[in-house]
Design a protein that fits this description.
Helices cover about 35% and strands about 15% of the residues. It is α/β, with parallel strands linked by helices. The protein has an eight-stranded mixed sheet with strand order 1-2-4-3-5-6-11-12, with helices on both faces. It has a two-stranded antiparallel sheet with strand order 7-10. A two-stranded antiparallel ribbon has the order 8-9. The longest helix has 19 residues. It is globular and about 60 Å long. The two termini are about 25 Å apart.
């Protein structure tokens, strides 16, 4: 069973789960969670990998779970340094890295800035530096005041809709909120009442509301990619897109794949990489086990660009794949890590 621990790094007290003591020849595995979750999301993976002889570590990212929530400006570089400092603090020289959603955004920056300490990198429905236009929440977060008001008033309902099958019909629509959850239904089978309560309690903290806004508003500085070079868009420029008369879809820049990390374009991680994706990326179900590396637009092309030694696996799920399809995700991680 995973132990719950705290450790201090410069300027931050971090909470993390740890399971497994490791075996000779097997580097530890570090799991980075996504938004709006905590290290709890990796409960199935850390058990499976610990049972296979890996020492597993799953920290709560800055501002989430039981890790400190300092009110300060967030950058990807800061979040990556947190993980590098965490590795030093717990005595890890090199590790396999696994990231989901925002954990993958952080993980890519760890690879870009501290790649010599990463043995392999596994991406679970995440991204590197390119934002897809259909990720409407990325624009909404830039419109000052909207996310603040929404999470102050609806943080519990947000989690219940996202994970618990709650109807969102009584929640505000655009432009106050980009979240569309449908009419609701039963709680999904992959999350039980205790898991749901964990996520509700964790995200009830106003410090996490402030942090997630910081992540999206300032941690993802959107750029238009032009032949003459990247053009940075201010937060108000992106907010204007979201608030565009007639809807963001009518804004001339909406079809553009914006980039939030042009300074990292030279990154090439030559070591093994795995990318797993679900239906959320394409807006439709994907055939589990498909190994085709989809290309053809800036979002899809970012993965083989940065990771030339990459394999790809489709997962029969939407986005929270480690919970929705725990057996298959565990199977793929074990096969991938076992091949190193």
């Amino acid at each position: 069973m995973a132990s719950s621990n705290f450790i201090d790094i410069p300027g931050l007290r971090m909470h993390y789960l740890q399971e497994g003591k490791g075996s000779p020849g097997k580097d530890p595995v570090i799991f980075l969670h996504g938004f709006p979750q905590t290290s709890h999301q990796w409960r199935h993976q850390i058990k499976a990998l610990a049972d296979a002889g890996y020492a597993c570590f799953a920290p709560d990212n800055r501002g989430f779970g039981q890790t400190d929530k300092p009110f300060m400006r967030i950058s990807r570089g800061l979040l990556a340094r947190d993980i590098a400092q965490f590795m030093y603090a717990v005595g890890i020289e090199k590790a396999h890295l696994v990231g989901h959603d925002w954990g993958g955004i952080i993980g890519f920056k760890v690879v870009a800035d501290h790649g010599h300490r990463i043995t392999s990198y596994s991406m679970v429905d995440t991204l590197c530096t390119v934002w897809a236009p259909l990720g409407l929440h990325g624009y909404w977060f830039k419109a000052e005041g909207l996310a603040e008001e929404f999470y102050a008033n609806h943080h519990e309902a947000f989690i219940e809709c996202l994970f618990g099958g709650r109807s969102s019909e009584d929640l505000p629509g655009r432009p106050a909120s980009p979240w569309q959850f449908g009419r609701g239904g039963e709680r999904p089978s992959w999350i039980d009442a205790e898991d749901l309560e964990h996520y509700k309690k964790a995200f009830a903290d106003p410090g996490s509301h402030h942090t997630c806004i910081q992540y999206y508003r300032y941690g993802l500085p959107f750029h238009l990619m032009q032949d003459s070079g990247p053009k940075v868009l201010s937060e108000s420029d992106v907010a204007d897109m979201w608030l565009h008369e007639g809807g963001i879809e009518q804004h001339p820049n909406f079809s553009e794949f914006l980039d939030y990390g042009p300074e990292d374009h030279a990154t090439r991680f030559e070591k093994p990489a795995l990318v797993m994706y679900g239906g959320y990326r394409y807006g439709e179900a994907v055939p589990q086990g498909e190994e085709t590396i989809r290309t053809g637009n800036a979002f899809n092309d970012q993965f083989p660009k940065y990771f030339p030694n990459m394999i790809s696996r489709a997962v029969n799920g939407l986005h929270f794949l480690g919970e929705e399809a725990k057996g298959y995700v565990n199977e793929q991680l074990l096969a991938f890590l076992g091949a190193q």
